[in-house]
Write a structure and sequence with these properties.
Blueprint (H helix, E strand, L loop, with lengths): L3 E14 L5 E8 L3 E8 L26 E8 L6 E10 L8 H16 L7 H16 L4 H15 L4 H8 L2 H12 L9 H18 L6
Parallel strand pairs: 3-5
Antiparallel strand pairs: 1-2, 1-4, 2-3, 4-5
Helix pairs in contact: 1-2, 1-3, 2-3, 3-6
Length: about 220
């Protein structure tokens, strides 16, 4: 009996060993279906005679972190785990790997989403936020500001009283800088890294104290 089938567009957020040399475990986020726990066959050099089909999924290359992809999935356990039968790249973000700070910001965003439930009605907006943030990082946007913007927008859009509670706690000077950081395009940002770090730490401290969101 064939397993449950699913076709969706998703972002690859995490990769980790599955405990088997045959498969790799991935966490993907779909704007339509939410978080998906997936397995993909580990690619190995093929020594099969010409004309024989490989058992590995058909693809355009190996999946990597932060890829946006179309996935063809199958599950034999009611969707708790999905096997990736085939994938097609929509957008790759190779630029994220050019610096440690950029990679760390992207990883933090991926972990934030993978460790915290996203309500069904918020999935499309979260998917759009993820797409915008990853594209900004890949294009060379300042990772400290991208992370601050993404975290604030996620909190605001999920209904947390970040503007009503966190914002008034800021010193007047930091409120002015924060307004520029959150409202101005990345290309127009001039705040120094120490100021951005201080404002971000304050927001993260508020998240830990006032919400159940797991940042780490």
């Amino acid at each position: 009996m064939p397993g449950q089938q699913l076709q969706t567009t998703a972002f690859i957020l995490t990769k980790q060993p599955s405990g088997s040399d045959t498969f790799e475990q991935l966490t993907a986020f779909s704007g339509e279906h939410g978080m998906l726990h997936c397995l993909i066959r580990t690619p190995k050099p093929s020594h099969a005679p010409s004309g024989r089909r490989s058992s590995a999924p058909r693809s355009e290359g190996c999946l990597d972190l932060f890829d946006e992809v179309e996935l063809w999935l199958e599950s034999s356990n009611q969707g708790r785990t999905w096997f990736i039968k085939e994938h097609r790249f929509i957008q790759r973000h190779e630029g994220i790997g050019r610096s440690y700070e950029t990679l760390r910001a992207a990883a933090a965003l991926g972990l934030l989403l993978s460790r915290n439930p996203v309500p069904d009605e918020s999935r499309p907006d979260v998917s759009a936020l993820l797409r915008t943030s990853l594209a900004a990082l890949a294009a060379g946007g300042r990772p400290d500001i991208v992370w601050l913007k993404a975290l604030y927008c996620l909190l605001r859009d999920e209904g947390h009283p970040v503007k009503q509670q966190w914002w008034p706690q800021l010193p007047a000077a930091d409120r002015d800088v924060s307004a520029q950081l959150l409202n101005q395009p990345l290309a127009a940002q001039t705040a120094n890294t120490a100021t951005v770090a201080r404002i971000t730490r304050g927001l993260e401290d508020w998240v830990r104290a006032e919400t159940e969101i797991r940042l780490t």
